[in-house]
Every structure is written in C-alpha cells, then in structure tokens.
Design brief:
The structure holds 2 protein chains of 2 kinds. By secondary structure, chain A is mainly beta. Chain A contains 2 helices and 9 strands. In chain A, the strands form 2 sheets. In chain A, strands 1-7-5-4 form a 4-stranded mixed sheet, covered by helices on one side. Chain B has one domain: Immunoglobulin-like, CATH 2.60.40. The chains are: A mainly beta, B alpha+beta.
Chain lengths: 130, 153
C-alpha cells in the first residue's frame, strides 16, 4: 500500500458568510413572470459559475446569492468601468400560494432561473355548471 | 420589494443611443451627406455594459451578456474598430404568461470600440463564459512599458 501523501496546496475558497461580511454586493437585474402553473424568476448573474450560487428559503423569503471572482476584479487597472463589481444578492417575499417543496432552479449562461410552482388550490380553475 | 442599486451608466447608455438615433434620422432627411450608417447600430435596442482594463501585456474587455446564446453573438473587426452585435431573444410566451417585472434588456444589442494603435489586432482572442464575453487583445511589442537601464560610468 502506497502511503505516500502529497502536500496539496489547498486554497480555501471563501464561504458565503465571509463574503457577506467583507465584500460588496449588488442586486442582479430580474424578470418575473407568472404562468397558470408557476412563477418564474430570471436573474442576470454574468460571471458566476454553478457552484457559486446559493438559493435560500427562510420565513417566506427567497434569497438569491451568487459569488464572483471578487479579489481579482478589485485589483485591476480599469480604462472603462461600467459594471458594478460585487457579488449578487436579492431577496424576494414569496406568497403562500407557492409550493415551497417543489422550487427548482438552474443556471445557464449567466442567467439564474428559479421556478416556483403554485399550489393546486391557487391555480386558476374553470368550474363547470351542470 | 427589495431595492436595486441605480446604475446611472446603464440608463445613460440608452439615452445616448436614443439621441444618436434622433440625430442620425435628422441628418438623413435634411442633411447633405450620405450618412455612414451602420445597420447594427441603427437597429440595436440596448448596449451591454463593458469593463475594460489593461495589464502590462494586453487589453482585456469584459462584456456582460447573460442569457445570450453563442450563435446570437457576432464579433467583427474592421478599420481599427471592434464591433460586437447580436440579439438576445426572449423566452417563449404563451397566452397565459403575465409579466410582473422586466428589468433585463432584450432585443438587438450593439457595441463598438475603436482600438488604440498599440493594440495588436491580429491576435485578438475571445471567450464566452457564464454569460460574459472576454476579449483579450495583446499589446504590440513597442507599446509595452520597458525599463531602460542607465549605465553609470
């Protein structure tokens, strides 16, 4: 058995909590629309990789967070800077009509899409008259 | 509802574009010359936000284009001008869709940059990752900062 162990240089990626304290945050632009079955939130998060996104649900609040390469962005010499450098954070109040257990999300090309399905009871129904 | 930071640059770009269109229109009708109209510029609805920074060896441009597919992105370079254009299409809507809030821009976009002489346009490299377009343009050898050694006798 080869017991050789390599010294691996492990660089600790900063956690969301550390980033919350030390770095600046901006709100991502969002589109919100509703279909008869669900609510959909689309948030622009360019530059964020899949493992750097966190979605939390607490007390009826939906929190979207995304980390960017903050340290690198801060140290540059800018000729033109139009964007705001910051990690992404936005909080939304979710209505009771949303079925919290079925919320899903995906991140594609810098756009975070969160799908919030409605409970059966709030979906529009037509009632037939016999 | 949570607050979003107001980014004046974003709104000003749109205002600038509208004024540009207005004047170009006016010139076209009453002016004398043939306006050198760039079709993409005319039809564009929004401009992506851009950051440009330089290192010792190259210029780096970063354009925020989330939600744009690679096929909808065109980068062209001619006469010292780098042009980025394309279209961001909207999600399909069916009749039951109700929009509550639209903040993200969609439609045709256009942005152009005149590169300085120190940029070596032959070696432009572009990469599109996570909704950000990263363009790297190396500087010409002569343009790089060089240290000149002083010999003391």
């Amino acid at each position: 058995m080869n017991e050789q162990q390599e010294m691996v240089n492990v660089q600790e990626k900063r956690s969301f909590e550390e980033a919350l304290e030390r770095e600046s945050w901006v709100a991502p632009l969002v589109d919100i629309y509703e279909t008869s079955d669900e609510y959909v939130i689309l948030a622009n998060m360019p530059g964020v990789a899949k493992d750097e996104v966190k979605i939390k649900l607490e007390d009826g609040n939906l929190v979207l967070m995304g980390l960017i390469n903050f340290e690198e962005a801060k140290g540059r010499k800018y000729t033109l800077k139009e964007t705001e450098t910051g990690n992404y954070y936005r909080k939304f109040k979710i209505s009771d009509g949303v079925d919290e257990s079925k919320i899903s999300a995906n991140l594609e090309e810098g756009v975070l899409k969160v799908i919030l399905p409605k409970h059966e009871r709030v979906k529009p129904k037509t009632i037939e008259i016999k | 509802m949570s607050l979003i930071k107001w980014n004046p640059a974003r709104e000003l770009l749109n205002v600038e574009r509208e004024f540009g269109k207005l004047f170009k229109d006016f010139e076209g009708r009453f002016g004398f010359g043939k306006s050198d109209v760039d079709e993409s510029y005319e039809n564009a609805v929004w401009s992506p936000l851009t950051d440009i920074h330089e290192t010792e060896n190259e210029f780096k441009l970063q354009l925020d284009l989330p939600g744009v597919k690679k096929d909808d992105l065109k980068i062209a370079f001619s006469d010292g001008e780098l042009k980025i254009s394309g279209e961001r299409k909207y999600e399909k809507e069916d009749k039951n869709t109700k929009y509550h809030r639209i903040e993200r821009a969609f439609g045709k976009y256009y942005r152009s940059f005149t590169l300085p002489k120190s940029a070596d346009a032959e070696k432009i490299k572009a990469e599109f990752k996570d909704g950000q377009l990263l363009i790297v343009i190396p500087k010409r050898e002569e343009a790089k900062p060089k240290e000149i050694a002083i010999s003391v006798n």
